[in-house]
Write a structure and sequence with these properties.
Elements: H1 9-23, E1 30-34, E2 49-52, E3 70-76, E4 79-85, H2 90-93, H3 96-99, H4 101-109, E5 113-122, E6 132-140, H5 168-180, E7 185-192, H6 201-209, E8 214-216, H7 220-228, E9 232-242, H8 253-276
Parallel strand pairs: 1-4, 1-5, 5-9, 6-7, 7-8
Antiparallel strand pairs: 2-3, 3-4, 5-8, 6-9
Helix pairs in contact: 1-4, 4-7, 5-8
Bound molecules: hypoxanthine (HPA).
Length: 277
């Protein structure tokens, strides 16, 4: 829906949240953002309430690269879950307010646990493409931060701590739960590049040198907003490909989507566990 330029960010977030509430999105406990190629997870919700981004005030549906662009809400695994199927990437708008908008709306709706998912390039050469990684920490290489500008004190402090962004207790539980089902989860550091060009081999070598295990173009803005508001965060990266230069071959977006199709059942099992634990 069209954005009214005169409203403040806080007003826009409130307007979107009130709209979703009026449509029946009531007290969601778990918020999920689905990454590239991973949107099918939303189909697991039975009798969902589906609202197109087009209909939500201030959600710029045109910016969503994934065709869905839907808010999906419903009861799942005994919990009230809201899913943003279709993400706003920073590279689509060059605007952090737009990029992190769905996360802010989820915060405003009162979500307690925030599950952020993405597809990423595997930087760690001891690991393999096709594996799943829990994010233990991140490196923000975007050159921007969604909290720049006026602080919204209602949500969190001016200088929020980032030491415990990705909840350690939940990570341990999730790794154990996954292991019990024979699913191996890696744990590592996610570096955010802006994209949309894939990284160069030299940038990937640099990322590895500074401690990154995975490289992607999302997640960090949403995690900063959710952490600011004190939410429990679980970050799940699907390592769709070895990052640039690890193998002597070019990368394509199609490769990422195809790999995501292959992992989607295991991915869904892990997200299920992230809701359950
Ligand atoms: N780099 C950045 N983002 C990505 C990649 C990658 O190699 N694969 C999937 N998303």
């Amino acid at each position: 829906m069209k954005t009214d330029k005169k409203k403040t960010l806080e007003e826009k977030v409130r307007e979107s949240a009130v709209f979703l509430y009026s449509k029946g999105v009531l007290k969601p406990e778990i918020g999920i953002i689905l990454g590239s190629g991973l949107n099918d997870f939303a189909d697991r919700i039975k009798n969902p309430l589906i609202i197109s981004y087009n209909d939500v005030p201030n959600m710029e549906a045109g910016l969503v690269s994934d065709h869905r662009g839907q808010v999906v809400y419903g009861e799942y695994k005994g919990k009230k879950v809201i899913i943003m199927a279709g993400r706003f990437h920073y590279y689509e708008s060059h605007d952090m307010d737009k990029t992190a908008f769905p996360a802010r709306v989820m915060v405003s709706l009162g979500v307690k646990r925030f599950i952020i998912t993405n597809a990423a390039g595997c930087v760690n050469t001891d690991w393999n493409a096709g594996e799943l990684m829990l994010i233990s920490d991140h490196i923000n290489l975007s050159g921007n931060n969604p909290l720049i500008g006026k602080n919204h004190d209602k949500f969190g402090p001016r200088f929020p701590d980032m030491t415990y962004t990705y909840n350690k207790d939940l990570r341990e539980k999730l790794i154990a739960a996954a292991a019990a089902k024979g699913i191996k989860l890696r744990e590592g550091v996610y570096a955010m590049f802006t994209g949309p060009s894939f990284e160069t081999p030299a940038e990937i070598r640099f990322a590895r040198m500074i401690g990154a295990d995975a490289a992607g173009m999302s997640t960090v803005p949403e995690a900063i907003i959710a952490n600011h508001a004190g939410l429990e965060i679980i970050g799940i990266s699907f390592l769709s490909n070895m990052a640039a230069g690890v193998l002597d071959k070019p990368l394509t977006g199609a490769e990422v989507t195809e790999a995501a199709m292959r992992i989607k059942d295991t991915f869904a099992e892990v997200v299920d566990m992230a809701i359950d634990i």
